[in-house]
Amino acid sequence: MPSNPTPLAESEPVVEPVETREHVHAALTRTSTGNEDLRELESGLDSLQSDAERKHRIDWSRILLPVAALVVLVLIWQFYVSLGVKRRDLVPGPLDVMGQMGLLWNEGKLQEAMWTSLQRGVVGFIISVAIATPVGLLLAQVAPLRRAFGPLISGLQVLPSVAWVPAAIIWFGLTDATVYFVVFMGAIPSIINGLISGVDQIPPQYRRVGTVLGASRLQMALQVILPAALPGYLGGLKQGWAFSWRSLMAAEIIAVGGTIGFGLGSLLDQGRVLSDMSVVMSAILLILGVGILIELLVFAPIEKRLLRSRGLLAGSTR
Amino acid sequence: MPVVLEHLGKRFGDGAPVLDDVNANIEKGEFVALLGASGCGKSTLLNIIAGLEAPSSGALEVPSDGAAFMFQDAALFPWLTARENIELALKLRGVGKAERRAKAQELLELVHLGAAGDKRPHELSGGMRQRVSLARSLAQDRQLLLMDEPFAALDAITRDLLHDELERIWKETGRTIVFVTHNVREAVRLGQRVLLLSSRPGRVVQEWAVTEEHRTDAGLAGQLTGVITARLREEIRRHAK
C-alpha cells in the first residue's frame, strides 16, 4: 500500500516509534496521495474482489439424465407387461399405447384434443393472471383488505376446483363458460397467494429505500414491490398454471357434450366409456406430457434467468 | 443553516426515551460525524432528520426538499443493474429519460465505476456496491446527505479507500453530510466536527472540531482519537451495573 513516508522516518535511527506512527497514519489520515492514486488503488481492489466471468456451457447431464430415467421407467413398464400378470387389454404395454397414439394422430383426434385443451388452458391461465395480479397486489399492500379476505383466499386454494364443476354445469350448462369458470376458481387463488407470499418475503429495507427515493404509492407497488416479489410471484404463477391445467382436465372429464369442444379430458372420458385402456393411457400420458413440456419450455427458463440475474442460483442443484 | 435540532426527543410507545433534548446546528456544506456507542439512538436520530420517523418532542428544521440517505448495507435492488439502480433514483425524482442515462453515467464515473454500470449488485464487491449506493444517494440531488454507518461492514483496506473517496466527493459536490458511526477513527478521519451522543437517552454530550492539520498529521489525529475514545468509554461505563 503506497503511503507517504514521513521525512522523519528516514532520519530517525530508532525503528519502533516510526512503526507505530506509520500504523496510526494509515488509518487516521488520507491513505492515497491523489485522485490518480485513488483511482488505481480502487480499480485494483475492484478486480481482486469481483469474480471472473464464468462461461456457461451446455451441461449434457441435464438432458441425458432425465432421458435415461424415462427409458428406465418405460423398460420396467414393458417388462411388467411381458410378465403377463394382467390381461393385455387391461394393462397395455408401451408399444400398444404408442400404436394407439399413432392411430389417434392419423384420425386427427389427438391434435384436436391437444389443441383445444392447450388453448383453453393458456387462455384461462392468462385471464387468471390478469385478474389475480392486481387483486394480489392490493391485498398484499392494504392491511384491512388482507385481514378480511386473506383466510378466504387461502381456503379457496385448499378447496379442490373439481368441487365447482357441478355448480358450474348448473349455472352455465355444457358450455365453454363452465370450463373457464372452473379454471379461474383453481388458478386465481393460487396466483394471489403466491404473490402475497412473495410480497411478504421482501426485505423491509427495499420499502425504506423506495420511501427515501421519494416513490409514490403506485410507484412503490410497480417499481419496488412487484419486481422484488417476482421470485415468489413466479412460484405462484407456476402453481397457478398447474391448478388451471388440473381444473381444466377435471372439467373436461366431467362435463362432456353440449357446446364443449373435444379436449384431452374428453378423450380420456371417451376411452373410459369405450373401456379402451390404451386410449385412457394415451390421454393420461398426453396430459402429463403437456404439463412437463410447459414446465420445461416456459417456466424453467424464465425461473432460471430470474434467479441467475439476482445471484440466487449459486449452489443450488438446479 | 440546513439542519437545526432543538430539544429533540423520541420515545417508542411507553418505553424509556431513546433521544432526549438533542440540540445541534449543522451548517451548509459541513461534514458532521455523529458518534455514539451501539444502541444510542444514532440511527433513530438520522431517521428523524430524514423524515422517516417523527420526533416525540422538540422541533427540527431540515431542508424543505428532504434528504438523501445511504444505508449500512448498500440496499441496491438486485433486479436492476448498477446503472439502473441509479437511474431509478433519478426517475423517482422526475428526471427525463434521455437525461437519466447521461446523468447516471456521470455519477458512476464520479465513484470510479464507469465500466461496471451493467453489472448486477451480486456481481460487485461490497465496496463497489457501497459506491453504487453512494452514487444513488447523490442521484437524489439533495443538499443534505445522511449516512448511516455506510462502511461498517467493509474490510479495513476498502474502508480506508472509501474514506478518501467520500472526502473527495464531498469536496467536489459541496454536500452537507451527517455521518453516523460508532467508530472513533472513522469519525475523526471524516468529520469536520465530531458530535458524541450519549446512550439511553441519546443526547449530544460533547463535540470536537477536527482541523485540516488532523488530516495530515497522524500524531495529532491519534491524540484526538485517544481523547474522544476515552470520553466514549466513560459514557459506556456509566451504564455498567
TrEMBL record, chain A:
Record protein name field: NitT/TauT family transport system permease protein
Superkingdom assignment: Bacteria
Species, as recorded: Arthrobacter nitrophenolicus
From TrEMBL, chain B:
Keyword annotations from UniProtKB, A to Z: ATP-binding, Nucleotide-binding, Transport
Domain ABC transporter: from-to ranges: 3-224
Domain of life: Bacteria
InterPro entries the UniProt entry points to: AAA+_ATPase, ABC_transporter-like_ATP-bd, ABC_transporter-like_CS, ABC_transporter_ATP-bind, P-loop_NTPase
GO molecular function, one term: ATP hydrolysis activity
SUPFAM superfamilies: P-loop containing nucleoside triphosphate hydrolases
Gene3D superfamilies the record matches: P-loop containing nucleotide triphosphate hydrolases
CDD domains assigned to the protein according to its UniProt record, in alphabetical order: ABC_NrtD_SsuB_transporters
Pfam families: ABC_tran (PF00005)
Entries under PANTHER family matching the protein: ALIPHATIC SULFONATES IMPORT ATP-BINDING PROTEIN SSUB (PTHR42788:SF13), TAURINE IMPORT ATP-BINDING PROTEIN-RELATED (PTHR42788)
Protein name per the record: ABC transporter
Upper lineage: Bacteria, Bacillati, Actinomycetota, Actinomycetes, Micrococcales
